[in-house]
């Protein structure tokens, strides 16, 4: 009885099917950046519906050990509540992930993005901020603590970008915290375009797409940032 209830609830797309392969160069190269974004957003829908793709990790480890052809690269916050691969229902070999508290980009992450796209062939860059971000809250509160002070200073431009906000500009105001998070993603995207001529050119040529997303902890859903 219990098992029957569970199977009705899950409604898998491919009942009984387990993915045992990893993406090949040919499969990745025929996808457009828009198709990859669509794939990732559909993966998020499966994640929210408790319907993640079942993967044979042992097989995937074996098949991916000597090459990788990821479709995309995601820059995410450190936050433990944002399991990046699961959020998009992606598996081994599908996606590069760079993580830093506050999901900003610096020279090291720009180099990593250039590796992911120019060298390894990823076609989509996702900068993903999230709701209730401790790094954003810490930057708004002007927290000073060891090396974290320098880390949080990278979020200060997003606070400046949010100065036209009419309400209370404190970390206790969720609407303001969200605005700073969204502006922080916008700032990361503009930093990519100004500081990486390589990625800017790839974007202008349509070889890659750069997208900002805001992940909500309360629903697990993604909002596309314009
Ligand atoms: Zn965060």
Walkthrough of the structure:
It contains eleven helices and five strands, in the order ααααβαβαβαααααββ. The chain has 226 residues and is an alpha/beta fold. The chain has a single domain (39-45, 69-225), classed as 3-Layer(aba) Sandwich (Beta-carbonic Anhydrase, Chain A), CATH 3.40.1050.10. Residues 1-8 have low confidence and may be disordered. Bound molecules: zinc ion.
Tally of DSSP helical segments: 11
CATH architecture, by name, is 3-Layer(aba) Sandwich
Mean pLDDT, to the nearest integer, reads: 94
Q: Given the helix and strand composition, which structural class is it?
A: alpha/beta
CATH fold type = Beta-carbonic Anhydrase, Chain A
> What fraction of residues sit in β-strands?
5-15%
What ligands are attached or bound here?
zinc ion
What ranges have pLDDT less than 50 throughout 5 or more consecutive residues?
Answer: 1-8
How many angstroms separate the termini?
47 Å
Cα-atom Rg, whole angstroms?
Answer: 19 Å
* Biggest sheet architecture: 5 strands, mixed
């Amino acid at each position: 009885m219990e098992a029957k209830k569970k199977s009705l609830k899950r409604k898998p797309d491919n009942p009984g099917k387990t993915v045992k392969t990893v993406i090949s160069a040919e499969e990745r190269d025929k996808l457009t950046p828009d198709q990859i974004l669509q794939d990732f957003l559909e993966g998020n829908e499966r994640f929210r519906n408790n319907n993640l793709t079942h993967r044979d990790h042992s097989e995937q480890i074996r098949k991916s050990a000597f090459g990788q052809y990821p479709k995309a690269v995601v820059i995410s916050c450190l936050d433990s509540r944002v399991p990046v691969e699961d959020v998009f229902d992606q598996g081994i070999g599908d996606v590069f992930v760079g993580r830093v508290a506050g999901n900003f980009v610096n020279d090291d992450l720009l180099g990593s993005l250039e590796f992911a796209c120019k060298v390894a062939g990823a076609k989509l860059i996702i900068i993903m901020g999230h709701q209730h971000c401790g790094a954003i809250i810490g930057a708004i509160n002007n927290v000073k603590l060891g090396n974290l002070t320098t880390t949080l200073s990278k979020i200060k431009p997003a606070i400046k970008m949010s100065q036209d906000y009419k309400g209370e500009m404190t970390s206790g105001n969720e609407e303001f915290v969200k605005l700073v998070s969204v502006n922080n993603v916008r700032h990361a995207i503009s930093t990519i375009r100004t500081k990486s001529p390589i990625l800017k050119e790839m974007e202008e040529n349509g070889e890659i797409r750069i997208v900002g997303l805001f992940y909500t902890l309360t629903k697990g859903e993604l909002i596309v940032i314009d």
